[in-house]
Amino acid sequence: MTDAWKAPLKLAVVGHTNVGKTSLLRTLTRDVGFGEVSHRPSTTRHVEGARLSVDGEPLLDLYDTPGLEDAIALLDFLERLERPGERLDGPARLARFLDGSEARQRFEQAAKVLRQLLASDAGLYVIDAREPVLAKYRDELEVLASCGKPLLPVLNFVSSANHREPDWREALARLGLHALVRFDSVAPPEDGERRLYESLALLLENARPQLERLIADQQAQRLARQQSAARLIAELLIDCAACRRSVVSEAEQEQQALSERPLSLLPI
């Protein structure tokens, strides 16, 4: 592992409000108590972090961020920040925005997202694949791309019968985002985490050793769970096979019934 990646890899989980960011983190961390999940919009109001370690060594820091709500207005505001004759790149324009008062007022929640993405190595952009591809989502991606960090789109709710995965794939490709991963946080596929980390390794080649250790550890955990389940089933089958129950014969039942009858009811 290179010196650049001895520190834990930092991933910001970003996206529109109520697309399943916190649910994704609960799945990845296997912590049902992480964050708050609700159908109400803007449930997550602050950045929350979780760490994944293997054998005591921290490998990955995940950051849950507030949902983006008004990217259209934010992008318009960012485009007006440049002075006449200026041509700022994305990070420089965002730095000016984050230094201004609007980042502490009107766009406070969005500023939290952008600060965390700028401080991270990459971002997971979570998408509700049931939603149509609207202008607000395109503007979100343009704003996030201004951070200059690798983005991996994560298609959530792809198990739903009314998902729009083909539309999203086409829209993301038109924005230059050809690498993506399907990961339904409600019904995650068995190899979902492995494919997510493998896709990240393509974007962050220097972090591949850490991601491969996470993959190997999770495969070992899955095998251990399968073996534990098989052992419990085998023990149950043995217990069932060894089960014995004494049954009183019909003649013995009749004799017992007669012996328990009052003398006055016995035949003379």
TrEMBL record:
Q: Which GO terms describe its cellular component?
A: cytosol
GO process terms (BP): tRNA methylation; tRNA wobble uridine modification
Please name the Pfam families in this protein's record.
DUF3482 (PF11981), MMR_HSR1 (PF01926)
Give the Gene Ontology MF terms in alphabetical order. GTP binding
The G domain sits at 11-156
Q: Which SUPFAM superfamilies match?
A: P-loop containing nucleoside triphosphate hydrolases
Give the superkingdom in one word: Bacteria
Tell me the protein's name: G domain-containing protein
> What species is this protein from?
Pseudomonas fluorescens
